[in-house]
Amino acid sequence: MPDLLLELFSEEIPARMQAKAADDLRRMVTDKLVAEGLVYEGAKAFATPRRLALTVHGVPTRQSDLKEERRGPRVGGPDAAIQGFLKATGLARIEDAKIQTDPKKGDFYIALIEKPGRATIDVLAEILPVIIRTFPWPKSMRWGARSTKSGSLSWVRPLHSIIATFGPETEDPDVVKFSVDGIEAGQTTFGHRFMAPSAISVRRFEDYEAKLKTAKVVLDPQARKDIILADAKELAFAQGFELVEDQVLLDEVAGLVEWPVVLMGSFDQEYLTIPDEVIRATIRNNQKCFVVRDPKTGKLANKFILTANIEATDGGKVIVAGNERVIRARLSDAKFFYETDLKTKLEDRLPKFKQIVFHEMLGTQAERINRIERLAAEIAPLVGADVAKARRAAHLAKADLLTEVVGEFPELQGLMGKYYAQAQGEDDSVAAASEDHYKPQGPTDRVPSDPVSAAVALADKLDTLAGFWAIDEKPTGSKDPYALRRAALGAIRLIVDNTLRLPILNVAKSALAGLPDKSNAEELPGDLLSFFADRLKVQLRDQGARHDLVDAVFSLGGQDDLLLVVRRVEALGKFLDTDDGKNLLAGTKRASNILSIEEKRDKRTFDGAPDAGLYALAEEKALAKAIDQVKSEAGAAVQKEDFAAAMSAMAKLRPAVDAFFDKVKVNDDEPKVRENRLKLLNEIRAATRAVADFSKIEG
Amino acid sequence: MDALPAHMRPERSFQGFILALQRFWAEQGCVILQPYDMEMGAGTFHPATTLRALGPKRWNAAYVQPSRRPKDGRYGENPNRLQHYYQFQVIMKPSPPNLQDLYLKSLAAIGIDSSVHDIRFVEDDWESPTLGAWGLGWECWCDGMEVSQFTYFQQVAGVECAPVSGELTYGLERLAMYVQGVDRVYDLNFNGRDGADKVTYGDVFLQAEQEYSRHNFEHADTAMLFEQFKMAEDACKKYLTAGWKEGGNQKEHLMALPAYDQCIKASHVFNLLDARGVISVTERQSYIMRVRELAKACGEAWVHTEAGRAV
């Protein structure tokens, strides 16, 4: 079956847009084909800086013919209905319609519509220009003389030529005939801008890809990445170094070249006094080059790896020399910034924060830093941190935002603060907190374990949450502009991973009390706590815990110690995996079901202690005894926060519950006995509430 | 090129370098203008770009524009930061289909051979909040160094460009430093001569960089500048109002250029105030807005002038 080859050749497409564009092209063309009844065998799209290309293979030559019966109005129906039917079906006269008899509803017209399938090449000629005109570039532009006309083509950068061929592999394919804004589809493209700029005539994907390769264009982005990565590793290895791999940079660099040529350059040793991260950020962000490290020390070497787009006639000497000049100038700036930063103590930068607004309703950065400082000092004893250190750490943690290096490379915030704090002789924990109080940033980020960092990190996150809660900027749906979900999750991970005991409600109250506007301080803490509960649920669910178990624990109420919630859920999960757990759950559920039926029937609840004098059967007495024992044992274990022991105690209930249901008829004829038995059932439910609300558990 | 005397070759002298670019673009049919006689932050502010980019008439021009960035002064101590430098600006309306090729040829004309250099077009979307302008294009890299800006204007002074112009901006000092192989801008050979006859960029501009840095950061009279901003803003509005011609069949403006001069003035005064550090973050935004409003009103006036409107 025939194949389609499509190429859209333009001026340089931004690297960051290429992968999605290739994907969009494939999706749009194949979706359209399928919608036209043309099922294809396979499709693949490619992007280089100057072209988007698509091959779709195994496309039928024609659409199949369509036969359709369409039901029309009643025979003898209103003329308007009949005229409408003729118009809709394309019949010339109503006599051309069939008449179908329906014994119930009477006779009505049927039109037989036959729609012959069209040649695929004609379908393509219709759909391709539409796809090109409606292509979803993140930003597109007009150009040239045609841009005066309304409806002129918009493309990411000027589009120069289009290849569109369609045909079976054994023959010369046909050109799909269409034009977009004066660009006629054909079978001509161009090679590498500098090394092989002439026109190339192609027939189908196989010779297209091969001819491009001869013309110094590697079409497949993955192939370009493979070449860059392999050559970069090789070059580094040959000099006894190791490439610092960087997937994001690799993706970008592969989108900047059609013919990757990897070269190595060096810079002066003196720049190695700058922190590695600053060197890397300088070389990576500004120059899009890789850095290499010494595998023995792990420290950066004074080398970098660049990817040129050309096999230079001098072997790349001039290119390397040019890049070295630029990198030298950049590193010289970075070194100057770094050394300038070191001359000012972090605390001396703080007054400037008085002029910087954090949020117009939440005051200046200086006010925010004061709040975090106070909160960190409050949290410190709860997490085992030295109060003075936590206060100092919070005092300095944001100061690096005003340094030159962070101004230049915002992604180094925190890290530079740590370096500058170390340089001015701060305590190690205090310095580390500059970097670590931003953590964890996401579900996979490292959670700081140093108590000082944890105290400042919690204070920072809780101030953020309390602040935006107080001004009613809570996240809604997919909107979370202040990353409050991430802040809450960060706080949860800090607490759980470090096994911290933090009464979150109290801390939230304190955070709210420090805010400029305290008008809503009444309801907010509870509201904020339930946000935490929701986040914890998501977090536990992501880790594989059953969401119903989380609900079963939160349903107990008053759960503001997140660590205990997690432990309860864990113990509960383990318990329910045992036979004892499963059977007890079944027994409790059975008790609950009976109770709810009877409660409904009697329109009352069966609270209160059962009367021991009314027990008639041994199983009743045994169950009552077991409940008492379990209540006190489980209660004591919960007191000691030993949830596993509480569950084991709970397990003892099981044989008594089983025996009770086996032998005892709850709905006894004697109302007093019945009432007493129902009360006993209620006691089972109450006993299990020592660990969780079993009614929320599924299964 | 071989016919040129040695001291005029683009890789030997800064002035030869500029002349080579001018000659190249003259051959492409551009009118070669002289710099605009006002202080401005970039060649784009020149009415030959800002205003001429608007309206349907063909327009191809190239010129050197001294550009003032008061904040970038470094008292002559930084090897490549200057508060006054030269931009070479090319505008072609409509953008010709081979503009990228023309650009690469212009690099060849100043001695950058694309068979040994790595020349790249790296995404850079251009936006000027003060001019109410934006376009898409690239920064052009030569061996990892940004040497030019290449932009297809989509909107200027709040007006959609129809047709679209192509704009090229060369950072002349930086390119010349690369071509001459010097690391410090003040070491550029200005006149291409040797020995006692040699004049460097430093001979011409070092003292100016030192003096203007003092002025821009320490002494510029802020009270006067605040007043000047207000006066330029008022004058711009006044000229715009006075310029609309009464009666006639079509709306017509008769003073877009003088009004626009005041917009340029306001913009530069704002840059000076900004360098003096007397404009707060919030005020900064509002000043930018005020200049943009002037630029937009001038654009609106321009498209109702002889040169700016449809025939």
Task: Tell me about this structure.
The complex is a heterodimer of chains A (699) and B (311). Chain A is an alpha+beta fold and 699 residues long. Chain A folds into 5 domains: 3-61 and 119-214, no CATH class; 66-115, no CATH class; 221-342, no CATH class; 358-394 and 421-532, no CATH class; 573-696, Isoleucyl-tRNA Synthetase, Domain 1 (Orthogonal Bundle). In chain A, strands 1, 2, 3, 7, 8, 9 and 10 form a 7-stranded mixed beta sheet that branches. In chain A, strands 13-15-16-14 form a 4-stranded antiparallel beta sheet, sandwiched between helices. Chain A has a 3-stranded antiparallel beta sheet with strand order 4-6-5, with helices on one face. In chain A, α1 packs antiparallel against α3 (120-133) and α10 packs across α15. The two termini of chain A are 53 Å apart. The mean pLDDT of chain A is 91. Helices cover 39% and strands 20% of the residues of chain B. Chain B has helices at residues 14-27, 47-50, 99-109, 172-180, 201-219, 222-243, 256-275, 281-302, and strands spanning 31-33, 59-68, 84-93, 119-123, 126-128, 133-142, 145-156, 159-160, 166-171. In chain B, α6 packs parallel to α8 and α7 runs antiparallel to α8 (281-302). The radius of gyration of chain B is 20 Å and the shape is globular. The chains are: A alpha+beta (699), B alpha+beta (311). Chain A binds chain B through residues 11-12, 14-16, 49, 139-148, 156-158, 160, 194, 256-257, 287, 289, 306, 308-310, 312-314, 317-319, 321-323, 325-329, 355-357, and chain B through 56, 79-80, 94-97, 100, 114-123, 125, 135-138, 142-145, 152, 154, 161-164, 166, 178, 183, 280-282.
